[in-house]
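LOG
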Amino acid sequence: MFMNRLFGKPKPEANTLQTLDKLNETLEMLEKKEGVLLKKAAGEVEKAKEFSRVKNKRAAIQCLKRKRLYEQQVEQLGNFQLRIHDQMIMLEGAKATTETVDALRTGASAMKAMQKATNIDDVDKTMDEINEQTENMKQIQDALSAPFGSAADFDEDELEAELQELEETELEEALLQPVPIHVPQGKQPTRPAAQKKPTAEEDELAALQAEMAL
């Protein structure tokens, strides 16, 4: 109790690891003993063969009895190893379960802390503030984009009528423009020959012919 108060209680995880280590050490020890007993049993079989060759039946039977005892101990050690394996599997499964539960508990605590930090009322208040700021900014932008001064007094209907009049005038001017005549390259349009002014002699001749006709 004093050690627990001084250093605190050991963590379950540490105890589990220590127990698994202890079980592993015991398992290795049992396996070594099993190996030794198997060698002894094999040795008794060889001794029994030798005694049988020299017709020492009693000694041979004693060797076989010791072999049976060694085999019984080997079987008992096998049962011990099976129990230890079973215990190790159970401990490892319990350790995995404990770690899983601890992880889930930690996640639940973290989620609870986050929910506590972000209260639903605070979220609603924040969203209201954002909407209010957005509406204020929209009003400011509308106010800045609205016409002011002399431009605010212009009538939109009059401006549209003036624009339509300009478009109609431009269309009429385009219709009155002469259509260009395409002249093939290398040819020039022929001009009518200028009439030659009659000379004085030609005038006198024409007058004479008129008198003769009378």
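LOG (cont.) second protein
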Amino acid sequence: MGAAHSASEEVRELEGKTGFSSDQIEQLHRRFKQLSGDQPTIRKENFNNVPDLELNPIRSKIVRAFFDNRNLRKGPSGLADEINFEDFLTIMSYFRPIDTTMDEEQVELSRKEKLRFLFHMYDSDSDGRITLEEYRNVVEELLSGNPHIEKESARSIADGAMMEAASVCMGQMEPDQVYEGITFEDFLKIWQGIDIETKMHVRFLNMEAMALCH
């Protein structure tokens, strides 16, 4: 009786922290146990057997995001060696769809959190800026599966995308002006009006969040 009471208390606590319902927590716990092989923690190698990730060109960045201390809300930088179920729920909560019961302020906060998670995927050195090199690396990785695009073309595309982003944030740039990179506030401006809510969600039975990070 005591153990059952303790377990239900724990679920209620997790509901409050993550916004997931008890049913969703139960389904995610089953997925966690599948990934961990019934162990109490997950390590990076546990993601090797996720089919949706196998062919994803930014697979390493998606997996890294699960262990990023910034996403785990455990610090401004660094990576965890392993994560427990509560950590796993914290990460999955970024993919939680917008709830119809949310007010405008809660919707805006949810959107901001999703974009912060995405920003951290680009900002690989945790310096609070996305540099041209970081942005180019991601674009090149995304284009790496396309045999019709040469490396130089991928670089040009990345450079063009970065200059466009910079112009959104800073207005028209002079030819000799150096842009140091995108801050999170800049990132919010760039994504203004783009529907991130429907792109970052999770279907709880098959953990589609993995597939949606293409």
